[in-house]
Design brief:
alpha/beta, eight-stranded mixed β-sheet, six-stranded parallel β-sheet, 32 helices, 18 strands, 50% helix, globular, binds adenosine-5'-triphosphate, binds magnesium ion
């Protein structure tokens, strides 16, 4: 107060300005979506530097994603021109802790060049430790242990901190010992996992008061975005750092807490005033992002949650359309409809950069990717791999490639021991040696080798068995549809068993991705057609400098905004997810509803919610029920449309009747039709022709595929 209003604060409203100018002491900004929390936090950072209250390097600013950190850095640079001394410590909790840990690695028993291992390495390491400890990995899967260790680390617990109950959670009371073993092993490898980044630094702060004091002195100001999603270890870390100066400003929205499955505790934001007595609380009510209908729909929806703090939100944004709810016949039609809408928006002058498709689960991206590739709409996937690049999809494709193409050594090498068959590097070496000596492809050479006595009996039997399986699959491929073949292979290879034994959350996602792959294959007649389609799809990465539509999960979209948002797959079992429904608890459904709130509030101008009446699950059509969240949207803000073209659309799948994909692309994007070349044309045609042929098959009239509800899938 008293300060002149500088440029970076000029656009701010009075409460925002208050949050910026109240520089000393704890500040809590608790407000709904799109009210300018992040904007105010950014201005605060600029203000602290511009008024010389602190050098940039004396400010710690925590964002939720790297993308958010990048945006904030750009915004601050814009406000400040050349930013005085150093840069602020600006990034995610993990990136900031990684930086701190490099400086003090020796205090955690590491060297400063330590490596950060990923989940795959982590699982591999745990498997070794489990088998060394004479535990049965089938009974006590590595992923289960990894999940537990993660959870403990999120709570700031070291092995010694576990209580009896936690210890019992793995292998009849061996949780603590295995956790300790894992930590020791990591140290000897000069490595740490993701969770260690926070935990090691917290341990250092706890054990070395001088180090903690150094940071407490250094950081004159601490700023934290998306505070509602901090977990216990992050909370403890922040509290230690802020204890001295107490100049901590946190912002968040309890309605947007969507990471409780990763240990986030919404209670952290609600008890801030207790932790920091005298905290200055700022509430923002004006939303600057969305039109009244979008805001009204989102606010009405979140009101169905019981555990929340009621907030008033209003906007001065003019007009705008109601939130559209569109019901379509099936998944392919959903993708087609969205892509038509995108082309319409483009014709009206919208930029692809301002368009997002928000999915609940990663596997949902596939149908959109396929359609966008065919229509030439550039897209990118944030916070995840493109569908065909995911590990389990690559594994499955590798099996199929070896079946289709026995000389495909690379594919064979990828899966000869995936799932684990106890074939080690030694066996692979011998196989390679024999392949070189005989000039045969790896698979064929290995079969020979298996029948000789050059391999240990067990390895010879295993590899021989696998290759004979491949022969059988190759034969099956002659008569089976590609999709059925894939299902057979996943079953017989033990891949499905491997996923079933794996009780982690990711395993469920992997299984979903694989059934989505089978679904994609339904559209192809031969394995060769499908594999060609895939290789072209994998090759057609959008160029960096072009505008792109963004496809992402709602989780990854937090804090971001787009002009036009498509929320897809709003059906019971998809969103809310089947898991949330099965768990049945209020808590998990309320978290799904908060996710829905986050999804709608990403939209600035238009929000379109899609739901399909039928989805293909495991090759069977099943009818689905619109999401309960649709019903909860206040009627006055919603425009319901149904464009079901009936059963006839089933076999038309991606393209409607008489619609020629080439004419379509040539007309809409001539440059792309040219650039993509003949291979791409062939791929589109293959898919199209297959569908046309199927439509023409006797007894395959569209009507005979009218969806029947499946009794073995419980919905609702
Ligand atoms: P979320 O809860 O989704 O993270 P948020 O509260 O952080 O949202 P911001 O992203 O900071 O909201 O702001 C939303 C939009 O409103 C942005 O486009 C921002 O530039 C704009 N905005 C923020 N404050 C103002 C203001 N005072 N005047 C005009 N526009 C503003
Ligand atoms: Mg924000």
């Amino acid at each position: 107060p008293g300060d002149q209003v500088p440029a970076y604060a000029a656009m701010l409203n009075p409460p925002q300005r208050e949050a910026v100018l109240t520089t000393e002491g704890p500040v809590l900004m608790l407000a709904g979506a799109g009210t300018g929390k992040t904007a105010a936090l950014t201005a605060r950072l600029a203000h602290l530097v511009a008024t010389r209250r602190a050098w940039p390097s004396e400010i710690l600013c925590v964002t939720f994603t790297n993308k958010a950190a990048r945006e904030m850095r750009e915004r601050v640079a814009r406000h400040l021109g050349s930013p005085g001394e150093g840069m602020p410590w600006l990034g995610t909790f993990h990136s900031i802790c990684a930086k701190m840990l490099r400086r003090h690695a020796e205090l955690a028993g590491l060297q400063s060049n330590y490596t950060i291992i990923d989940t795959d390495d982590q699982i591999r390491l745990l498997k070794q430790l489990i088998s060394q400890s004479d535990l049965d990995e089938k009974r006590w899967p590595a992923r289960q242990l990894a999940g537990l260790i993660d959870r403990w680390k999120n709570r700031g617990l070291n092995p010694a901190d576990l209580d009896a109950v936690e210890n019992e959670a793995y292998a009849n009371g061996r949780g603590q010992a295995m956790y300790q073993l894992y930590q020791d092993r990591l140290k000897s490898l000069n490595a740490c996992d993701f969770g260690d980044l926070m935990l090691h630094v917290l341990n250092i702060f706890r054990a070395h008061k001088d180090v903690l004091a150094e940071y407490q002195q250094r950081f004159k100001y601490i700023l934290v975005d998306e505070y509602q999603d901090t977990n216990a270890v992050q909370y403890l870390w922040l509290r230690l750092l802020a204890q001295e100066r107490k100049n901590i400003c946190v912002v968040g929205d309890d309605d947007q807490s969507i990471y409780s499955w990763r240990g986030a505790e919404v209670a952290n934001i609600l008890r801030f005033e207790k932790d920091f007595p005298g905290a200055h609380v700022v509430r923002l009510e004006q939303n600057y992002r969305s039109t009244p209908h979008i805001l009204g729909a989102a606010s009405g929806l979140i009101r169905a949650n019981s555990e929340r703090h009621e907030k008033t939100l209003w906007t001065e944004m003019p007009g705008g359309d109601k939130v559209r709810v569109i019901g379509v016949w099936d998944g392919p039609e959903e993708a087609r409809r969205v892509s038509e809408e995108i082309e319409r928006l483009e014709r009206e002058g919208a930029s692809l950069d301002g368009i997002a498709i928000l999915v609940r689960a990663q596997y949902q991206t596939r149908e959109f990717e396929d359609r966008f590739i065919q229509t030439g709409i550039n897209y990118r996937i944030i916070g995840g791999f493109r569908f065909y690049e995911r590990a389990e999809i690559r594994d499955a494709l590798a099996y199929l490639r070896v079946i289709a193409q026995p000389q495909d050594d690379l594919a064979f090498e990828r899966i000869y021991n995936q799932p684990k068959r106890g074939l080690g590097a030694k066996t692979l070496e011998k196989m390679h040696g024999h392949a070189r000596a005989t000039g045969l492809p790896l698979a064929a050479a290995s079969l020979q080798l298996a029948d000789s006595d050059e391999l240990p009996r067990r390895a010879a039997n295993t590899i021989g068995g696998l290759l004979r399986q491949f022969l059988a699959w190759r034969e099956a491929a002659e008569t089976m549809t590609p999709a059925d073949l894939l299902r057979l292979v996943l079953d017989e290879s033990g891949y499905n068993d491997m996923l079933a034994a794996d009780r982690s959350a990711e395993a469920a996602g992997r299984a979903e991705n694989l059934s989505e792959l089978a679904r994609a294959m339904e559209e192809y007649e031969t394995l060769g057609d499908f594999l060609e389609h895939v290789s072209l799809v994998m090759d057609s990465d959008g160029r960096e400098d072009e505008e792109t539509v963004t496809i992402m999960t709602i989780h990854a979209a937090k804090g971001l905004e787009f002009d036009n948002v498509f929320c897809v797959g709003w059906e019971e079992g998809v969103f809310p997810s089947q898991r949330a429904i099965d768990e049945g608890g209020l808590a998990s459904l309320e978290e799904e509803r908060r996710l829905a709130y986050v999804a709608i509030t990403r939209a600035r101008r238009s929000c379109t919610i899609m739901h399909a009446a039928n989805r293909r699950i495991y090759g069977q059509w099943t009818s689905s029920i619109p999401s309960r969240f649709i019903e909860e949207l206040p009627e006055e803000h919603v425009d319901q449309q149904t464009t079901m073209t009936g059963g006839a659309s089933l076999w038309r799948a991606n393209w409607s009747e008489n619609e020629d994909p080439f004419a379509h692309v040539a007309q809409n994007r001539p440059e792309r039709a040219q650039a993509r070349g003949p291979g791409w044309q062939r791929a589109v045609e293959t898919g199209y022709e297959t569908r046309q042929k199927r439509l023409a098959e006797p007894g395959r009239s569209a009507a005979s595929f009218a969806a029947k509800p499946r009794s073995d899938i419980a919905i609702g």
